[in-house]
Amino acid sequence: MKRFYALLLFLLSVCLTALSQQQPLTWGEFVENMYEEVKDDEDNLDDIRQRLIDLEELHHHPFNFNTATAQQLATLPFLDNYEIDNILLYLSKHRRIDSWGELMLIKGLRFESIRSLPLFCKIGEESSGGSTPSRKPTHSIDTRIDVPLYTRKGFMWDNKLKAAPYVGDKLAHRMHYRLQTQRAEISLYANKSTGERYYDNYGGYVALKNIGFLDQILIGDYRIGFGEGLVIGRGSPGKSNTNARTPQGIRAQQGFSETYRLRGVAFGMNFGAFEAQAFCSAHGLDGTMTRDSSGIQTLLINGYHRTQSELNRKNALWEMLTGGHLQWSKRVEQHRFSVGVSGLWRHTTRPLIPRPERTRATVYRDIYPQGQDWGTVGVNYGWSAYRWNVAGETATSFGGWGTVERISYKASGRFEAGAVFRYYSDRFQSAYATSLSESARRQNETGVLMRLAARPWDMILLESYADFFYFHWPRFGMSTSDSGQDIMGQISVAPGNRHNMALRYNLKRKSVRDQMNTSHRLKLQYAFTPNERLRWQCSALLRYYAIDNKQQTRHLGWGIVQNLRLRLLQQRLQGILSAGWFDSPAYLCSIYLYEPALWNSTEYNAYYGQGLRSALTLRWSDRLSKSNQKKIWMLEFKYGVTYYFDRDLISSALQQIASPLKQDISCQLRFDL
Predict the structure, then answer these.
(1) Is-contact 408 242, C-beta < 8 A?
(2) What is the pLDDT of residues 90-138, one digit of tens each?
(3) Phi, psi (5° rounding) for residue 601?
(4) Could you tell me if 478 and 444 are in contact, meaning their C-beta atoms sit under 8 angstroms apart?
(5) Phi/psi class of residue 552: alpha, beta or left (left: φ > 0; alpha: ψ in -120 to 50)?
């Protein structure tokens, strides 16, 4: 009988391992899925890019799953509190897992989470009581240069200006250095964009851990998020997972983005069931002045400082932020409770005057922030138990209020349902909020999102959501209130560990300039992975765009993308070749193509017209020392080319290229010492 049970247990573990490998999730697939959340929504695209940069850093430096803490697991956006509790409970009983197949044994762990965890975690040995972590400092240095093989109009001589409009050269360059020890981390960077005269963007941070009664203290550039992100946070949670959270706590600023970063001091403390964070930030913002120079009319977040007019708008005002968060959380048997309060005060050195001239065309600016001082206070709460997960946050800006409420239920490991309700009043002001929203501003919106996910068989995964939203106040380009819908359905099939297929359909109806616009998207994708060295992926995209105007305008666009990844020389050399054909008659019907990018960057661009986009990425990495596997060097090279068959010019204004051909070269070198 013992032999029978031993054989049964062995066969079960083999089956679980096979099931877990049926849909191997690569970093490229994870990035592409994240971008599917925003599609052509430019308002939330920066949030997704920054979140992916943060996650890529964790992907290259995964933590030990067997010794993971709740704080480490909370950094993964696809895990909810119920899953985190069950992971920690399983590890406390069984002490460790020996293969990723054992994740199937953890109660309540979604199949998407099982596929994603190996990207950010590793299976390591348990840390014994007598061992201590290595105190040796580690260094990482990387530098990148981008060379465009074309000339934009902004770099050409202008007779009126007696100079070129762009004050700098065509090259883009950045440098980054990081020092890590057991309790400290120091990061410094400098970045120069194309067209800028010098290193226009620079900064860094110093992060310390376990200093006296402080769990952490961070000085420099950082990001921060609490609760549902209604008061402050960075990183939109997306619509495909109703349990997704805005990243929690204090996080160092990864990457080189100038958008929505904080610069100052932040620290966190933990007292048993209580945890607290506080922060203070002061940084400059770009903006356009009103005609009488009495205030700022528009805040700019693109970070461009290429022309003299853009330089004049640099640091047009300074913004000061201060706030904090206090939260209590407790687990009682199968129940987990949490209650927290967040506060934020914001001050600018110049008043914001978003509508200096009262015209009907700018009525949408009536609800924009005005003045110099704003305050926001919110209360977040949550409960999870018995496959239920309930969470929410309600906040007021002392002139308006907003709330986000979400609930989900996992009937089994094969079925999950959830819903999210959101309401942001017209006068609610929270410039740094990242809770679920159809637009970039968490304001002037009511919406209900419903989601279903099912896995009727091990090889098939069904996902869908329906989001219905309503805008009370006229938006940009609108004269009245309006409503819309966003509906998605997807089926993924993995008949084995070599094949992966997915079909995704999305319908979105949203008014633009008092006309209802309807977008239909269809994406068919197939991936073949015969072994660890080779992977081929083919994607076919179709988009139909309809405008309900007098002309009944209709556009149909399509595209095909091929990606081939090859690893050679014991995986030290990796090459990725991507080629895409697009045929779209108008910008409104643009086709979005994802392609692999260099480390610490992402590529997800829109194309319209008729043309071809190809890119070749090569990465060579090897160890610097045979005795220390962590000491490595990496050299990356990328060549990209875009050719249009239906035009002689690319882009417009100062970005115009007097050729249908566009070529770029990028090179990056990194050392981990």
Answers:
(1) yes
(2) 888 888 888 888 888 887 787 778 888 888 898 875 544 333 445 688 8
(3) -160, 165
(4) no
(5) left
